[in-house]
Amino acid sequence: MNILLTCAGRRNYIVDYFKAALEQTGGNVYAANSKSYAAAFVPAEQSFLVPEIHHPDYIKTILQICTEYGISAIVPLFDIELPVLAKARNMFLSHGIQVIVSSPDVIEICYDKWETFKFLQQNGFQSPKTYIDLDSVNNAIDNKEIDFPLIIKPRWGMGSIGIMEIDNREELIVLYHKIEKVIQASYLGYQSSKEPGQMILIQEKLTGQEYGLDVVNNLNGEYVTTFVKRKIAMRSGETDIAVTENDLELMDFGAKLAKKLNHMANLDVDLFRTDKNCFVLEMNPRFGGGYPFSHLAGANLPAAIIAWLKNEEADPAWFTITPDITGFKGIVPLKMTKSPINFTENVSNHCRE
Predict the structure, then answer these.
(1) pLDDT tens-digit readout, 87-134
(2) Interval 67-77 mean pLDDT
(3) Which residue, of 153, 173, 204, is where some domain finishes?
(4) Hey, is 20 helix, strand or coil?
């Protein structure tokens, strides 16, 4: 079985996890990315330089790679590509290629943070008070429904791009318009341009302990387990240090969320636990930056995905983690020894992201 990781970027450890999972049964792990300098290219069997996600030839190029290299499954690793691959999933299936991506409806709920807020509210989960434009948040401030400090962030965002804390109305106006420019100048601009007056969310600032959950469903959207990590430190919007916990309350929380959402494979959930409740910040239906801490503690979701793709039972041990394992993301320099195969040379000449 051959696996293709798309938008692989710096997630070389995901390549390693899938390579280890394939050692017993055979197969290779390939990596695709739109930029030629990607850490994931180093351990991959072969790497591919592809068009950017919203280029008209992106899906055609990925299909060409899958056909030429006998790819059985695609594992996307970047939020922005999830809507594109979710819509193309049935096309890939018609070619015998599985895409490990949730349905377009689930992707929309998670990728659009305003839809995330509405989903959580409608299904009985707590989330920070959230407003979609300046008028609504100013009215809420006037009515004393919310007060400073507040958090502003992109509606379609990831990592730490455009996330700022604001302390007064003057900062609200200035930083709101600054983030508009940041979004428009980044890869977030493509989706955000469709809602120019509602591309930024304003939220109450919460205080409490931040946790990361890996909420695992099988490939049919059926709940399997939840891995709980207490976050110790963050870097560039990703968990940098975390400790695994055997927290039954949060595991039950993950189960309830999974059964409402019906996502496929991993759901990376960020939440705050306060003295009053648990508040969901974001949900990302993919391998998140916090998954390595689960893997270090004994989880093996790549092995489970491979088993499910083969219609085999997953080993229950892959869904068990040891509590109180502290994980760190260190820096290990990697040496590029071979260049990626360039699949962008013959694509149509359209404007890219």
Answers:
(1) 999 999 999 999 999 999 999 999 999 999 999 999 999 999 999 999
(2) 98
(3) 204
(4) helix
Number of folded domains in the chain? 3
Residues 168 and 184 both lie in one domain: yes
Q: Three-state SS for 196?
A: coil
Is the Cβ–Cβ distance between 253 and 296 less than 8 Å? no
Residue pointed to by tokens 């450890």: 13
The answer for 262, left when phi > 0, alpha when psi is -120 to 50, beta otherwise, is left
What is the rounded CA–CA span in Å between residue 161 and residue 183?
A: 8
Q: 170 and 69 in one domain?
A: no
- Residues 231-241, mean pLDDT to the nearest whole number: 92
Q: Which residue has the tokens 């409608």?
A: 122
CATH number at residue 142: 3.30.1490.20
H/E run at residue 337: none
Q: Is pTM beyond 0.90 here?
A: yes
Nearest C-alpha neighbor of 232 from the set 214, 246, 249, 244: 244
Q: Are both 11 and 91 inside the same structural domain?
A: yes
DSSP 276: S
Give the domain extent around 51.
Answer: 2-101+334-342
Percentage above 90 pLDDT, the chain: 89
65 and 32 share a domain? Answer: yes
